[in-house]
Amino acid sequence: EMFGQLTSGLESAWNKLKGEEVLTKENIVEPMRDIRRALLEADVSLPVVRRFVQSVSDQAVGVGLVRGVKPDQQLVKIVHDELVKLMGGEVSELVFAKSAPTVILLAGLQGVGKTTVCAKLANYLKKQGKSCMLIAGDVYRPAAIDQLVILGEQVGVPVYTEGTDVKPSEIARKGLSEAKKKNIDVVIVDTAGRLQIDKGMMDELKDVKLILNPTEVLLVVDAMTGQEAAALVTTFNLEIGITGAILTKLDGDSRGGAALSVKEVSGKPIKLVGRGERMEDLEPFYPNRMAGRILGMGDVLSFVEKAQEVMRQEDAEELKKKIMSANFDFNDFLKQTRAVAKMGSMTRVIGMIPGMAKVTPAQVREAEKNLKIMEAMIEVMTPEEREKPELLAESPERRKRVAQASGKTEQQVSQLVAQLFQMRVRMKNLMGVMEGGSIPSLSN
Ligand code: GDP
To answer: For tag attachment on the chain, is the N or C end more exposed, with fewer CB atoms within 10 Å?
Structure first.
């Protein structure tokens, strides 16, 4: 099982919350310790682990529990979402050049699976209907060229070679012009791997990159090397500038550190992963699925998501009912404006009502300012006036008093009273429409 140790390490965190009613600062201490330990054992780098744990614990005590969701399930969901974020959020697609050929330059240390990836990638792109060509640029190991030729034959993709006596940048240049002649869509360039990073290797890569102007420069790294892989991605990016990484050998007993650290440490995404020795074993890196696999709790995740969705709907229902049932005197008006203010943003509230028109931030600010003015006027009304808006409608003296006491103009008071009556009418209309099904915009 991929990342099995990490999965079971995290499991002990959830288990410690079994039987708890809520998530508190106190009862998440132990589970957070488990999460921290599990990540460190998976070879995630320490600063990454620290940030991760901090963020998860902040959220854990910050969120209210969704009804029906237990604290341990809630924590699973928080950790899941944070893992997805850690791995870059969205899948990071390969980029293709506007005019063919797209050039993909592959770099990597010896033995990481770079040659295999060349052929796998050609195979992958060929299945998407793209014509490919491989360029053998690893001139230091004749065996590497032979291997690439064999793999190219296996997947049915031409391999351009010049043997070992020509400079890699020269091979690259010639290979590229050959590809242009043949109207190839994607050119994949294999480069020399060394056992360790050295200056010669970097200089050669820089030369080849300069000649090719590649759309993608991908560093192939071995998942078994954990956080070391993330460090390599950082170094190569600083030295030659890369667009992403390909993580190989994810099928082995790797611990997860590389998959979890690369994006966070280097800022560069993992674009593809190798999950076996066969030519078919290359696929895009989906942070979402990866997080799901690590947690191994797909059912819990979808349950929590559904519960959250239901909760959002119930909130909206509740709000709708409140608006509908109000016979709308100034007390209701005040209650609602305060409820809205407490909820923070009008946008959110309006957004919760299905079918309601979208509003701009400027409109929201304006609305919030108006609410403050209204509130000031309602606050100085007598209880009687609040319950019977008619009193104010009929008496200029009362309106004058409210205006003076609240520091607003008589005109503003009149407007407020008129608005309340308009609102009553609109509520009634809205109710009628809602019974019929659809809801119009409230913005007149
Ligand atoms: P290079 O030196 O970087 O070109 O590495 P190779 O492509 O020659 O691969 C080195 C070894 O790793 C070979 O035996 C490959 O079959 C193996 N290998 C490459 N990718 C994967 C992978 O995703 N999973 C597994 N299990 N083995 C792989």
So the answer is: C
Which ligand 1 atom is the nearest neighbour of the CA of 114?
Answer: 3
Q: Which atom of ligand 1 is nearest to the CA of 138?
A: 4
Residue 118 belongs to what domain range? 102-285
User: Ligand 1 pocket check: which of 116, 118, 196, 278 to mutate, most ligand atoms within 8 Å of Cβ?
Assistant: 116
Angle at 212 between CA 112 and CA 209, to 5 degrees: 55
Burial readout 33-47 (b: 16 or more C-beta within 10 A, e: otherwise): ebbbebbbebbbbee
Q: Ligand 1 in contact with 278 (CB < 6 A)?
A: no
Asked if residue 119 and residue 78 are part of one domain, the reply reads no
**Assigned domain for 308 exists:** no
Task: Count H helices and E strands in the chain, helices first.
Answer: 19, 8
Handedness of CA 49, 50, 52, 58 (dihedral sign): positive
pLDDT digits (tens, 9 = 90+) for 177-201: 999 999 999 999 999 887 777 888 8
ipTM: 0.97
Any idea what the CATH number is for the domain that residue 208 is in? 3.40.50.300
Answer whether residue 120 is part of any domain: yes
Q: Using the Cα atoms of residue 232, residue 235, residue 239 and residue 245 in order, give the sign of their dihedral.
A: positive
Number of domain units in the chain: 3
Q: Is the CB of 113 under 6 A from ligand 1?
A: yes
